[in-house]
Amino acid sequence: MNLKKLIRDVPDFPKAGIIFKDITPLLINPKGFKSAINQMAKMNWKLSPIHKIVAMESRGFIFGAALALKLGAGFVPVRKKGKLPYKTIREEYQLEYGTDILEMHEDAIVKDENVLIVDDVLATGGTAKAVCSLIEKLGGHVAGLCFLIELSFLNPQEKLKGYEISSLIKY
Ligand code: AMP
User: Fold this and answer.
1) Residue among 4, 79, 121, 152 whose CB has most ligand 1 atoms within 8 A, to mutate
2) Taking the domains of the chain in order of start, what are their residue ranges?
3) Are 7 and 21 in contact (CB under 8 A)?
4) Residue 57 among the catalytic residues
5) Does ligand 1 come within 6 angstroms of the Cβ of 22?
6) Of 40, 83, 101, 158, whose Cβ has the fewest other Cβ atoms within 10 Å?
7) Per-residue pLDDT tens for 18-69?
8) pTM for the predicted model, two decimal places
9) pLDDT tens-digit readout, 76-134
10) Please, are residues 116 and 45 in contact by the beta-carbon 8 Å criterion?
């Protein structure tokens, strides 16, 4: 199944110059969504079993939760500052202009668990790198990073050297 056909380019969203990769045509297509999750579930990672799936808000939750059920892994949400109710650990990361903060519950991962990171789009890799740091702060091992879409022209692999990355669709 050609998943690329189910991704819609929306120019100048959320601001001028950005071509937003809209995944909603894939999500409303039952065969497309199922195929994406099945392909993610078939990937082989250097560490197994996968104990936890960590996904970042908000579109990462859609793929991460479905994949966690399929792999029999726990699901861990990573959220922007101030959204999680319990005690958190945090990581500041660089944006195009300024910085932002991501948080995860401090009991979300137990030392030596194997963790897979899932998101819809890998762009510069800044977000994913911050999530790797959160997992490692709690003693987890990053088994790999799994994306629906990778914007290879932004060279995110450079920022994530040493980590195993798999993406279903590349631009
Ligand atoms: P980055 O930290 O640059 O890798 O950005 C990754 C996050 O921003 C992901 O959670 C994506 O959902 C979102 N993102 C970045 N660029 C795009 C884009 N062109 N289309 C859709 N989402 C994007």
Assistant:
1) 121
2) 46-170
3) yes
4) no
5) no
6) 158
7) 999 999 999 999 999 999 999 999 999 999 999 999 999 999 999 999 999 9
8) 0.97
9) 999 999 999 999 999 999 987 899 999 999 999 999 999 999 999 999 999 999 999 99
10) yes
Residues in the chain: 171
Residues 6+ apart with CB under 8 A from 81: 90, 100, 101, 102, 103
Candidates 3.40.50.2020, 3.40.50.300, 3.40.50.720, 3.30.390.50; CATH matching 46-170: 3.40.50.2020
For the CA of 120, the closest atom of ligand 1 is 12
* Annotation says 96 is catalytic: yes
pLDDT for 34 equals 98
DSSP 125: S
Place of tokens 């100048």: 12
CB atoms inside a 10 Å sphere around CB 99: 9
Q: Round to whole Å and give the CA distance between 91 and 158.
A: 20
